[in-house]
Fold this protein.
Amino acid sequence: MKRESPKQESQDSLQQSPAQKVNILLVDDDPNNLFILENTLTVLGENLVRAESGYAALERLHEIEFAVILLDVMMPEMDGLETATLIRKQKKSEKLPIIFLSAIERDDLRIKKGYEIGAVDFIFKPYDPVIVTSKVKVFVDLFRLREEVIQQKRTETVQLREALESHKLLTGWQDSSVSAAIYGAGPLQQRAVDSFAVYEKKYAALLDDYLEALAFSEKPPSHKVSQIAESLGRLYAGPRDVVQLHINCVTQKTKNVNPKRARAYTVEGRLLALELMGYLVDFYRLHEPLTVKEKENI
């Protein structure tokens, strides 16, 4: 009699549930082994998705995003090592954690090859349920944390764009007779790559100075903001360039820093972007539009 899988999030619904359950892919050609894995990992309360072959696993990867894969090494037609190699060749899953499961005796050459492909761990059957659950939970927690960070950055990016758009309207940017839109210039990051890279470094240093001044209740270095605004204005930068400059810098600054510092960059740092926008508006109001010849030389 065929065993029934334990109650869990339905595999038919491959998208994550409203409760944001994380998806875990279980790959084994033996249904009994899958049943054991499901019973072991069901305590995590996540969405467990079956695949009974390497081909089925690759299909699942096209349909849904996973936190981790538990992949049996010995399978017919396409074994676990070959499956993992194909998984790594896909952009979507090139960094997806893979835990190999093996019922054969320890084979150092096979293990070495697995790690070369990109395995994060090897588990040998019969395995300890507590150990397997603990290992999988680590990658589930890491996935969830990464998703939270990505979502936070998306939210903050939207908020920044909305704030800059409001600032643009309040300062009459669109009504100004002089603006980057009139010049018809494309994104500064594309038409002046080297210059944009220089201003990324300047803006990044200014961001640190700006936050330090706010932290110690000192006057922000507005003269430096004005200088950058004037330089950007002479390159015919526009609102989108300020937004892109700020986002690029904040993205780099928030890597490998503590949450409090990251929040300072993303939240308080928006004040700098708004101030820079204001100075850029003032610069355009004081200058005449480009001539046709000047426009052609951008």
Summary: Residues 129-170 form the longest helix (42 residues). Residues 18 and 279 are 44 Å apart (CA to CA).
